[in-house]
């Protein structure tokens, strides 16, 4: 029988714990937020479209509020100045959560790749990646050439439809976007019908789909995956991650076999060159872990770069076709600049303020990563009088920021002109941050912006697009974790 003194000791321990816990937070303002339930927290209140509920809570609680995703403490920030401040400077707010179930190398002592790694290891590899991407093409004419080859292949594919409806735009774009990224990273280009390219696309789609369908629960309650691996979808997700890993490992092994120090062709070569030179075992480029890091980085580039860019392109086609007058204005500007006698190139962009404004409006209106990508507080830290405790996840409410009437006036109207001055020059708005901001800001922003510009401008130079009259009116309501248009069908009429 439990003795009376044990009960008293247990009560005393709870009181002492409670006292220390509250004295830690007593000096700070209380972060408001909805009440949740044990274990599940606020998950059941979220519904299928998390961002809709997050926006409601932002309207109710204001600049900052707290929710529990399962047992995970999470703060959501909606104040634009605070979003910039919290992500810009302080390394304490630049961590990431570790979710081994989704990692290619869950047995490593830390998360690898760029998206999920942290600290000095992340900083070194992020810096290296950005430098090499600049060398191998981001923002350069060779990259532009690669993207234009993909644009041309897509245009040829559309021409072959001869005015018949197209209903798989997203797949067409994803093939093209993956291929240009593959060429930059591995110096190999596939034909769009190549089975190897289709396998790569199918693998990536499977990972993204399974993460969207089943990943939520495994992110917020990872223990469910270990307790019920079949039912929770954990086994299925692990299988596609392993398949994907094999694909990238094969590319790395091929490069290792053909490696020539005096003939560095692409990102994989330059990375291998760095690891070959490294003898210091404490270096982030040393040994087997560095090779795993290379594979995980390739996985991250494809995971983070392909669905996002092709989804934005799909929204672009949908909005430009749907909203009155937009297609005419775009085509008029293309004609003024190119006389419709040549491809639109990146050099034309400064003379195309309407197209530039249109792309910013597409990014704002779609806000495909509505809560951005969450950061982790690596230590307890005060922010604006609130205590952000260690291991809290921090979400910027980008959708709310991009649809806030106090900032945009008429956010639910699709109006590229909001990014133009009265005399028609492009006007940047600092409150548009689809690639997030600060220390972890998206590394693919320039590639994504260039790709979207070259695709949309050259497609609308070649075609006038309308919706398939025999299909239902396309919906503007998104689906998925990355906000994606529901399938829609268009007809492309070649322009003379
Ligand atoms: C429209 C297209 C895209 C959108 C909207 C987008 C959005 C984002 C966002 C919101 C983040 C989170 C930043 C943070 O945590 O602070 C991010 C990170 C990242 N993005 Fe993108 N992205 C796009 C395209 C790309 C492309 C084309 C690539 C690669 C080629 C890419 C690679 C990455 C990587 C590697 C990270 C992780 C950065 C880090 O943690 O240091 N993204 N992106």
UniProtKB/TrEMBL annotation:
GO biological process: one example: organic acid metabolic process
Pfam families in the record: p450
Cited Gene3D superfamilies: Cytochrome P450 (1.10.630.10)
GO cellular component terms listed in the entry, alphabetical order: cytoplasm
Any one GO MF annotation of this record: oxidoreductase activity, acting on paired donors, with incorporation or reduction of molecular oxygen, reduced flavin or flavoprotein as one donor, and incorporation of one atom of oxygen
Statement: the UniProt record of this protein carries the keyword ATP-binding: no
Cofactor: heme
Keywords of this entry: Heme, Iron, Membrane, Metal-binding, Monooxygenase, Oxidoreductase, Transmembrane, Transmembrane helix
Family the UniProt entry places it in: Belongs to the cytochrome P450 family.
Name the UniProt record assigns to this protein: Methyl farnesoate epoxidase
Protein's organism: Orchesella cincta (Springtail)
């Amino acid at each position: 029988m439990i003795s009376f003194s044990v009960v008293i000791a247990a009560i005393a321990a709870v009181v002492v714990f409670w006292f220390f816990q509250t004295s830690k937070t007593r000096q700070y303002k209380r972060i408001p937020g909805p009440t949740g339930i044990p274990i599940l927290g606020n998950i059941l209140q979220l519904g299928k479209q998390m961002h809709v509920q997050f926006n409601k809570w932002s309207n109710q609680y204001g600049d900052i509020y707290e929710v529990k995703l399962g047992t995970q403490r999470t703060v959501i920030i909606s104040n634009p100045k605070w979003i910039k401040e919290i992500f810009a400077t302080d390394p304490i707010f630049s961590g990431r959560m570790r979710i081994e179930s989704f990692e290619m190398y869950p047995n490593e002592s830390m998360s690898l790749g760029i998206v999920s790694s942290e600290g000095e290891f992340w900083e070194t590899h992020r810096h290296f990646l950005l430098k090499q991407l600049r060398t191998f093409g981001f923002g350069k004419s060779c990259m532009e050439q690669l993207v234009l080859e993909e644009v041309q292949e897509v245009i040829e594919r559309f021409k072959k439809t001869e005015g018949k409806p197209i209903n798989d735009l997203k797949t067409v774009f994803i093939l093209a976007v993956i291929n240009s990224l593959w060429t930059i990273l591995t110096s190999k280009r596939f034909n769009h019908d190549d089975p190897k390219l289709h396998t790569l696309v199918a693998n990536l789609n499977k990972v993204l789909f399974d993460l969207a369908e089943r990943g939520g629960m495994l992110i917020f309650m990872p223990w469910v995956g270990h307790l019920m691996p079949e039912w929770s979808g954990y086994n299925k997700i692990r299988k596609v991650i392993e398949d994907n890993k094999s694909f990238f490992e094969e590319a790395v092994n091929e490069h290792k076999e053909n490696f020539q120090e005096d003939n560095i062709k692409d990102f994989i070569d330059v990375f291998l060159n760095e690891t070959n030179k490294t003898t210091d075992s404490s270096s982030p480029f040393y040994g087997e872990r560095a090779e795993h890091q290379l594979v995980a980085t390739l996985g991250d580039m494809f995971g983070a770069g392909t669905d996002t860019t092709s989804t934005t392109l799909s929204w672009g086609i949908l909005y430009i076709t749907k909203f009155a007058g937009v297609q005419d204005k775009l085509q008029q500007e293309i004609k003024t600049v190119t006389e419709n006698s040549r491809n639109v190139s990146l050099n034309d962009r400064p003379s195309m303020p309407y197209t530039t404004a249109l792309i910013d409006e597409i990014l704002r209106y779609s806000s495909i990563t509505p809560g951005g990508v969450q950061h982790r507080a690596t230590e307890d830290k005060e922010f604006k009088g609130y205590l952000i405790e260690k291991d809290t996840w921090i979400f910027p409410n980008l959708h709310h920021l991009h649809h806030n009437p106090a900032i945009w006036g008429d956010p639910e109207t699709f109006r590229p002109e909001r990014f133009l001055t009265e005399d028609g020059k492009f006007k940047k708005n600092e409150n548009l941050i689809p690639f997030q901001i600060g220390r972890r800001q998206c590394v693919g922003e320039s590639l994504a912006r260039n790709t979207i510009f070259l695709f949309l401008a050259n497609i609308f130079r070649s075609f006038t697009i309308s919706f398939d009259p025999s299909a239902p009116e396309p919906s503007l309501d998104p689906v998925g974790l990355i906000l994606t248009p529901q399938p829609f069908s268009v007809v492309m009429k070649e322009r003379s």
